[in-house]
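Bug: token stream looks shifted between consecutive jobs. Job 1:
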Amino acid sequence: EHFGNAIYRRGMNGPRIAASGNRILEWSVQISASTTEVVPPTPEHYQNGACAMDINSDKIDEMIVSRASKQQGTDLLWFEEVPGQMLWKEHFIANVWQGDGEEGFHDIMPFETKVSGKTLRGVAIVVNRKILYWFEIPEDYNQPWTQHLIADLSEHGAEFAQSGLVSGDIAGNGRQDIVCGNFWAECPADPATDSWQLHRYSEWD
């Protein structure tokens, strides 16, 4: 059985490790911990890339992961641990068309920054190892999230696949910038409306 990714999360009963393939399994962080199936198998497989994030501010981490869509493209989803239930509740974030024969989602990470004293929260993703997006959590986080394009790296000299995501204040202006492959994307004053500036820091292809 193949798992595309594994995450560490704060569960209702302590720290957990969850992994996704064609289903999602979870283990307690203990020696010889038993396996719990928290999301049953589906015909569509989960893709590489997943992260943990406290979406509803209850100090319990939800799992964000992508899965091949029943229709086309890829569905970005989040799963919620529900009190008194073994199976997690599925929530839809967005559908992203990745193109025929493309590689899908490779990395997902939480993204958070402040704009005029307001905190914008969401996740950053890289699709097909070349296109960077971030999805903004709306006031009602159960509704579909707002998609923002950061950059298509192939339009900026990326001849080869790019992947890996990490954030940090590279520009030194108090905002979270994003690194992917040989590039870093500079977060604008308002990432919900303004364009990101892309910088190539490495020629190591």
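Job 2, same session, no restart:
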Amino acid sequence: MNEIIIDEQELLNIDEMTVPEYNNKGEVINRPCKYLNESVRVKIDRLYDIAYCNRSTQLVYFYILDCLKKNTNVVKIERNTFEEVLTLDKGTISKAIKSLVEKNFIQIIDKDTYKVPVDQSFKGNIDTIIKKDKERKEEERKYKLEQENKNRIEYLNNLRKLKLKRNE
């Protein structure tokens, strides 16, 4: 008989989140789900997809997943870190990242910053990740609005100066 042995330290790493699920009537209900804090959850079809990628693409993808911090789906990894850890050259890493982007495994957010689509893979509590993502998007929206207002005010001030010069 196979025994499952869980030590006390592992029990401290178990957390809980709610997962939406459909009942027999087609209604969405939230079901509590236990998970290990440091584990990464990957949809099974994504695992099939990555299995058909070349070895270097797989290495880069799994390294990105490994670098995710709890409750986030965005990670910053410099190219030279990929080189050092995976012992791959820059060209191979660039091709792997390009392939991962084309196949929608990751998105490039900024230089050396990658986002893993939360509907495919994530680490931590999905509810927290979605909340953080909404907050980040709201901050971006506010920043863009502030920049537009600042540009508009600057434009109007410049226009006033031009009109004053013409009237002189």
